[in-house]
User: What shape does this take?
Amino acid sequence: MSDNAATIGGLAVPISIPKRAAQRRNPLLLTPYGLVAPALTLMLMMLLGPLAGVIALSFTDYQLGAPSLSWIGLANYHEMFGDRVFWTALRNTLVYVGIVVPGAVSAGLAIALLIQSGTSLRSLYRTIYFLPVMATLIAMAVVWEFMLHPQFGLVNGVLREFGIAGPSWLQDRSTALYALCAIGIWQAAGFNMVLFLAGLVSIPKQLYEAAEIDGASSAWARFRLVTWPLLRPVTTFVVVISGIRSFQVFDTVHVLTKGGPSKSTEVLIHSMYTEGFEFFRSGYGAALTVVFLGFILLLTLIKSRLADRGAQYA
Amino acid sequence: MTALTKISIWSMIRHVLLIAGAIVMLLPFVWMISTASKPPSEVFSSELHLIPRHFALWENLQMAFAKANLWRFLLNGVIVTVSIFVLQVLVALPAAYALAKLRFIGRNALFALVLFGILIPPQATAIPVFLLLHRLGVLDGYAALVLPFTISVFGIFLMRQFFRNVPDDLIDAARMDGISEFGIVWRVMLPAAIPAVTAFGIFSVVAHWNDYFWPLIVLNSEHLRTPPLAVAHFRNAEAGTNYGALMAAAMVIIAPLLVAFLLAQRRFVEGIALTGIK
Assistant: This one.
């Protein structure tokens, strides 16, 4: 296939030679459309179409394999709002986000500040803290499961040394969700650290010198007067990113607890997976997805509003 | 003098805190290697020890490879991640070039769609995409694993930003030489964008090597399993009985990316930090 034929697709054949020359002088007629056509087609097929599809499906009773579907209005939503499992899943998701976001953001910030406050071993520390981000979460979840093993696990083994009888972390409904939160923080802290490090590097050195001349002698004063305000846009950004990622929590739940024991770790995406892909209730699964999308949209809006306000102050 | 002692005391506190944190970060990896090196009698002992008395890593690895077709699963991982990345580049680069350097009606609208697309989380489109693949009859195959990810709006965005900084003179010179617009994408823009393509490649390969959600949904056949799916199945079959082999399998699955990361740390950190822009 020649380059030209590929760019303008099926139109290459009827175009006569003088016209092609004209097009070469002004290549901005059809070529751009040829260049974006594959991307646009796939975007409509795999992204925008399915997005519209999931919203439409949520108003139907479609089940995979069913010969037909009918419009049932808000019935899926009625069922969902009347279902205790949905409210449990929503509450658990919010608890998870509410713990992992502050945990992983403050851990990431603290690590970044500590690494940046000295010069020695910077890259070694950065590498170590970044390892959990790289490692396949499913594999590490299985490792964590064994570390949290009530009898032979490392965590309870250490607790035993101090005379404390540790719980069966993942099998106990009062601890399972918090154990998953700990894994979530462990995995996300290094990622946030990298974003904070990038933010810290971009703060001009002169500002610290100026603050020192103005009497900000302690490290805390310099942090409060220079680092924190200048890091605010990055912090907002990291908080929202962490929020969006925590809302998507699924891997650890599915492989370690399947939402149990007694729904104590059931979360939104896990409910969506069970309804949509185990019971094949596509319509109901779509309604759960729409709720999830609502929260993601909310977070995105908060981000853009805060970004606007930050721009006003700057 | 006091300032100097103050600095060295702070430097010590810094190292103590960072080492304490590093131990927490590394503990799961250390425990994984330790358990993978222990015979069952030591794994199932309530007494804590990191260094195995009888070194059984080799036996555990052999058992892991015997119980699960790990080579095949690793190969699946390579096939899927490489196909996804190559197709993403083939689709994204021409579009990114058009968005960055050509003027056409609808360009701003298309770019707005790209920006909007970046906000859509992959879980949101899962049900309709699954139904589409079901209709196409390609579920439970490589196509089902690859096809939904051939479009990376994030890749288009990233490349478009990079291409905007490529000088127009370079493109005009190529046009004078009679290179078509399509040729310019591959012969002028791609070579200029190698750093960005590399960063995007790392981002893409890491994301899809580690992805669990989508393979879980579309796969049934054992021989098609990707590495994360393989670990999860291994765990369901063996947990409670064979932790040594399970930890050895986990080691094998995370090893390729971790080794690559340790060899090219800076590039990996940059590549993964890209997710931040998302």
